[in-house]
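[step 3/7] fold_predict: job queued, chain A
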Amino acid sequence: MSNQAERDMLLGNHSIQVRSPANKEDIFSMVSSRKQLSPCPVCNRADQVKKMQTAYEAGELRIAPPPMPEAHSGMIGYVSVGMTVVGIAVILIFVILATNTFSVLQWVLTMMCIVGALALSFMAIRHIGKADEETRQRYPIWDQAMSHWTRLRFCSRDKVVFDPQSNKTLNDTAVKTLIDMDHPAEQSTPARVAVSH
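[step 4/7] structure written:
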């Protein structure tokens, strides 16, 4: 080491400052470069406090994050019926072309199959559009649920979930209510209940 008054070394997310021995107050000090997490309201310590996502990924938390909304539109029915109708139309066209006689019945049936296939396509597109619109309307609810999820913390020592804003613990039911996308939480948060361990 050189004779500089202060030396900085970076190790991962932490910064270590080594001061000269002339300064007897702080020979070594460790300063975290990341935001400090709120202490647990049960043990009043922050060393085992984690974000909810980190605790869930580590297998310590059994409550999953809110799932991102996805459009679930069943297209197999439209596709199978449409393929059948198009197949019938193709067969009728081949029969019309193979025979030199003109049959009004064959022509009407072929046109009905073509119109039916177009109608099925139109209905399928509307079905997809409706499912996409329903999904789009759920995004604000998902955003609200995710804001609750990212705000909450988990203490590995006490096995509790808590809200750092109010410094209160929440039971599993209260957490699920906050992140429930089928019955979104109102602007006011539900009653918080201390978890017994």
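[step 5/7] annotate
Residues 104-151 form the longest helix (48 residues).
Residues 1-34 form one domain.
exit 0
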